[in-house]
TrEMBL record:
Family as reported in the entry's similarity comment: Belongs to the peptidase M17 family.
Organism per entry: Meleagris gallopavo
Subunit comment: Homohexamer.
Gene label: LAP3
Protein's UniProt name: Cytosol aminopeptidase
Keywords: Aminopeptidase, Cytoplasm, Hydrolase, Magnesium, Manganese, Metal-binding, Protease, Zinc
Keyword Hydrolase: yes
CDD domains listed in its UniProt record: Peptidase_M17 (cd00433)
Amino acid sequence: GKRSLCNNPDFPSVVVVGLGKKNAGVNGQENWNEDKENIRAAVAVGCRQIQDLEIPCVEVDPCGDAQAAAEGAVLGLHEYNELKQKKKPVVTPQLHGSAGSEAWQKGVIYAEGQNLARYLMEAPANYITPIKFAEYIEQKLGNFASNVKVHIRPESWIATQQMGAFLSVAKGSAEPPIFLEIHYLGGANANDSPLVFVGKGVTFDSGGISLKPSSGMDAMRADMGGAATVCSAIVTAAALNLPLNIIGLAPLCENMPSGKANKPGDVVRAKNGKTIQVDNTDAEGRLLLADALCYAHNFNARAIVNAATLTGAMDVALGSAATGVFTNSSWLWNHLYEASIVTGDRVWRMPLFEHYTKQVTDCPLADLSNIGKYSRAGGACTAAAFLKEFVTAPHWAHLDIAGVMANKDEVPYLRKGMAGRPTRTLVEFAARLSQDSPNPK
Ligand code: BES
Ligand code: ZN
Ligand code: ZN
């Protein structure tokens, strides 16, 4: 017979956790799978208890869903320790028993992907500069060298590409910009249409001449969260060996005030020729993304998905409950939405009305202003309308992740700090897309 867990010399300590309602399934009000969320939360709290007891190893019951259990364990135990002499004890979670070992492994990979994004976001801006970010991702992709290509494009390349909007932000800083371009070729054919991810990579956003208030400004070290989540999703897709091609694009720079910085009222020219009046230098993310989105059109993408910590207004609108998704494609929306129900890292659809476009195209000196003319009203929506001016592709989604950037205590299986959301949703989305035909819609 099987030995019981209690009184077992192999298990001197046992943590018991409650899983809530049995077979709760998909909650149609909450838009997530409640069983999975409960398992993540319960396993996370159990593993943290083991960590507090300084026990180096824990076997985790799969709780009926080994992937969710692994995610709870690996996400729950993560903490940014890098720069402290006193570190949390390392706890290695393992699956208890042999049933579901494949699902467990998948959960570990998903969670490690999110933890990679959390690590990059949490790290101080003097450690994760544009070049350090690029090199870190290059190193992570080194394990999959056979079907991965990494291009770390320097400032000269960015200038040749006529990315005047991106460059105008970068030139305010002493730290040189980088345009990171990564190719993961997991598809049956190297020339199958790729999924293209684009991420805002502002490694520190001071606001520039339109300087932010000093209180809480340190959080703007995570303003590369878009780049972190999309690049981590690609690293994870490679680790899972997903059968599709994915290209990742990350314009990386700092937004700083200096004698060379953008000044309010300056006009810059984006890659597609459109001119932009920089009415607020703190609305810099859309300037980087304008050029990166133009460039994303070079790849005959199945879909272009960008992620950005773009607006404080997004946080005002939804808080940390869900990522705001602005998309011109219901097909793309459905895929993202279905993925998010499984991962519990939710999305919510937001509007791309012409109403908002008018508020950014009505501009004294240029084709576009980088802020809406009623600057605070619908701030997340006017930002999305601005990005739309650089998109002609039929399947594009902009994910405003400013509200989900950090965790206080809302997500029970993440500790306080930068959240790395919605990396798992991006991975799950890519996994689902890889099951579709690779021909463009
Ligand atoms: N990176 C910020 C947005 C942000 C704010 C992200 C808080 C996460 C938390 C972005 O560059 C910014 O400053 N946006 C301005 C736009 C405004 C000037 C139109 C904002 O939201 O205030
Ligand atoms: Zn800003
Ligand atoms: Zn920013």
